[in-house]
Amino acid sequence: QVRDSAIVAIANDGYLYFIGQDSRLVCYKHVDERFVRFAQTDAHYSEAMCLGVFARKVVSAGRDAIIAFYEAKEDSLHFKKFYPRRRISACTDNVIAINNKTSVDFYAVDEEPCKKEESFMHKNEVHSEELLVRLSEDALDAAHPQELPCRYLMKLHLEEVASCIALCEDHFAYTTQCKTRLYRRMRDTVFRLEHLRDMEKCIELLFFGEYLVLQNPLLISLISLSTLETAKKISVPGYEKLFSLGNFLLFSESCILVGPTLEETEMNFPFRILDVFVGEHLCLLSRKGTSAVYVVTRFDISRNTIVDRKYIKDVHEVRGLAERGDRMFFCSSSSVYSYGLNSEFNLKKTYVGELVYSMHATPRNLVLVYDDWTEITKGFKRAADKKKFLKK
């Protein structure tokens, strides 16, 4: 008997794996015509009723939205887990928007701290639980990052759950399962939004140049912000992650650049693009084949050539890119890393805490948006009681 609660099972390379309402994964090894208990590990916080195999590794998924990969070696069971990711924030030079599903909070960053503007809030209104953190080069050498001085601007209440938000200097937009709504940011002494138009729903949206981009499966629509009409439609063979590079739009899979006049140019770049940052050069984050090695490439758009490359090893998850002076920054689900661009590769790590959603670069700071994972787990459905671990 494996457990006294519900389980699921899968076989892979001579091993049997079990997981279920008791969220610990237990592994049995085939030895001399029988299966012997080999190892047990605990990657989940709530019940996990999904098991599969991907690239010869066993994968589990749980109600906690964590995905874990397992690999049995000769003497032990190794695993890596990936926390949930969602695009909950958008940022301009000095304003950051936080998506709370049925509302959006706006903050001014790079300012001195001051009191909340109560006139923009309803009584007893609750702020977003996400935290803002400032990271400077000095802070990376300290034990803890600094709290970011910021000013609360307003809360926008939504009629439906927003699946994605986008923000630029003059506009804000969000999309739901029914529609996409576009606003103009008013240039008054206070932060205000004016509703402009409702459009078709989309799966993701972003701004680039003078256009709003609506992304749907196999079709991308570019909406002119001056006329609010469709300026161009682009058909794609599959999903493309899109990146805004100021006046350019970049496609992750095909490495196509769409310019200000909506002309398309193919970049001379051999990898699928995972993330980008525009600094002195265009910085591209990619992965070397199916290995665990990430590649940061500095790219010159004007010459369509690669300037240099750096390889990131021993970091199982990389998200976000930012450049400050002669240092490059990126983050994982729990930490921020940095290294020198013009010197010997010297990777520095600063632990922030789960769960880091995103990193944004403002003129004076790097801004991380993250949640307290300990608080999140308090809302999970309780799994089956876990008895004391016994390896044999």
TrEMBL record:
Lineage, broadest ranks: Eukaryota, Fungi, Fungi incertae sedis, Microsporidia, Antonospora
Q: Which domain of life is it from?
A: Eukaryota
Q: What is this protein called?
A: CNH domain-containing protein
